[in-house]
Amino acid sequence: MQKKILITSALPYANGPLHFGHIAGAYLPGDVYARFQRLMQNDVLYVCGSDEYGIAITIGAEKAGRSPKEHVDIYHTINREFFKKLNVSFDNYSRTTWEGHQPLVQQYFLDLLTNGYIEERVTDQLYSEADKRFLADRYVVGTCPKCGFAQARGDECPKCGASYEATDLINPRSQLSEAPLVLRPTKHWFLLLDKFKERLLRWMETKHWKPNVVNFIKSYIEDLRPRAITRDMSWGIPIPLPEAEQKALYVWFDAPIGYISASVEWAQKEGDPELWKSYWCDPNTKLVHFLGKDNIPFHAAIFPAMTMGQNQPFKLVDELPANEFLNLEGRQFSKSDGWFIDLEEFFHHYTTDQIRYTLAANAPETSDAEFTWKDFQSRCNTDLLGKYGNLVNRVLVFAKNHCEGQMPAVQALEPIDEEFLLNINKLANEAACCYETFKVRRASQLIMELAQLGNVYFDAKKPWKEAKNPDSKHAVATTIACCLECLKCLALISSPIIPESADKVWKLLGYVSQLEKGNWVQILNTSIPAHQQLQMPQILFKKVEDEQIEKELNHLQVLAEQAKKDHPSQMVYAPLKEMVEIEALQKLDLRVGVIKDAKSLPKSKKLLLLEVDLGFETRSIVSGISQQYQPQALIGKKVIVVANLKPATLMGTVSQGMLLAASDEKKLELLSIQDISPGAVVS
Known about the structure:
Blueprint: E1 4-9, H1 20-39, E2 43-50, H2 55-64, H3 68-85, E3 92-95, H4 101-114, E4 118-128, E5 133-134, E6 140-143, E7 152-153, E8 170-174, E9 182-191, H5 197-204, H6 211-222, E10 227-228, E11 230-231, E12 248-249, H7 251-254, H8 258-269, H9 277-280, E13 286-292, H10 296-309, E14 322-323, E15 326-328, E16 331-332, H11 343-349, H12 352-361, E17 369-371, H13 373-402, H14 415-436, H15 440-461, H16 463-466, H17 473-494, H18 499-508, H19 520-525, H20 546-566, H21 582-586, E18 590-600, E19 608-613, E20 618-623, H22 631-634, E21 638-642, E22 648-650, E23 653-655, E24 658-659, E25 661-663, E26 668-670, E27 681-682
Parallel strand pairs: 1-2, 1-13, 2-3, 13-14, 15-17
Antiparallel strand pairs: 4-5, 4-9, 6-7, 6-8, 9-10, 11-12, 15-16, 18-19, 18-21, 18-27, 19-20, 21-24, 22-23, 25-26
Helix pairs in contact: 2-3, 5-6, 6-10, 12-13, 13-15, 13-17, 14-15, 14-17, 15-17, 17-18
């Protein structure tokens, strides 16, 4: 029975070009899933679009000397073209400045207001007398109320990671003019998220999502509070109330509704303006959101709450395959630090399928993953060229030379042939299960397992020897027929990940149709017709040379060094705390400890759970260092522990101490000891 499947990928912010990390988290997995479901003959609608409102857009536009609309037009076009080059098969790529988006967002607001889920409140907000306007958090800098860092942003401290309201900053000032800010009363509208708490928790009980998603979001829902959904700004969706002049909806409120407006626009392009409702208003539709882990709260709690509180029978999300982050050569992607890969440059040297396969093979599905240029070279040369491309070439060349370039007719199968064909089907069926359950990484492994299976079979049968014996003609035909069946299935199961290369193999086998429009089950269960004319073999993948990889690594270092010159670090020192007597310091019991085990805390993206040996006992300590250290790298490290700190519960886990660390604007390092034994006193 055909299923109706609605797929979304998180809307990329139109404030800059995409990078590899974005692709790995939300877009390649979404496209792979959409391609597979189409092959399964399901009714698929896959939508996305540019997120084009918000304070960050106005800041970027002002810095570039252009209007916000000009700014988003540029990056909408750039990112749309990148998606085309990456062969991401959106049915519609829309934008939140599309004329049909605003009415939908405003209706959401009015429904929630009428139903008692939005209320008006007067609150004190930061006002710049120099700029003559209220400033949203992204326009504000000041001293962090938690750690004292003097260059903290209006919503988050980049040093300690604390989140807070802009009004909590010490000595807040304008990012535009550096002028000091004052508090003034202003009217805003709040979404009463706490009213949805019980309903969301009951709804969550029906979900069987990844543990990292479920654990995080349950804790998040428990802490839901009313949240402001409006800002004093002009670049955004206007509040549809006469008393709300010069106020707009906060970007996180309007952006997820962009999935619906993208579907509305698609229906209009299809010539049936009501067609989108057959997806969004059908309870049998399967709605799948693809996103990075930083977007989990909005898609698993806030957007569902908004949808529960409005009046249309819109679908709530069914599946939420949120992915972790992709890093680059041991560090986070960062344009400002020069630590990134320019997609435009990438396409000058490499193919779309090379990056799609590498990112799929390193998909950050359950933990942060890493892109390295050496691994990219290995994936291209060892896997794509050495296994996949080699099998395709050797089988087709042999068929051309010994089978008249046609699919041979099979006479009789030997046990080795039957086992080979059985294993092909097993791998293909496992690949289907992986695609269905969002396991792209394992699916990429199965592609290479199938290619290697074919190579091993070809070597075991040695058809080049049998071809010399006229009496072995039928045996040769059977061997090559089985190998061609392997190529057919190889093209099929690789089509969602490397669609261009898979379609080339499909055409080389003599098919004239497009593989992506085929039927997975029929292709798997229908043999290639005997005597079907094969095409001349061609090179599918080129070797990535050592010299090219060295160039890439050197270029990365050059970019990083240039970024340091362009943005010299200006160390801003936290203010000294008040003087204390030596007796206060003597109360601390500092000990040397050695880390015996380390693992991520499921409910947090920043915390690690450590087992630390103090010599006389082992302690469980929760530490916020996951963005600086990989768990395995910590094992065996000697650290300094505050051993007499009262136990505290963090994210539901008891922490029996604290590690000492030093940090600046860029990094954090644990204080470590080399030769002193665990348990020794630090003084």
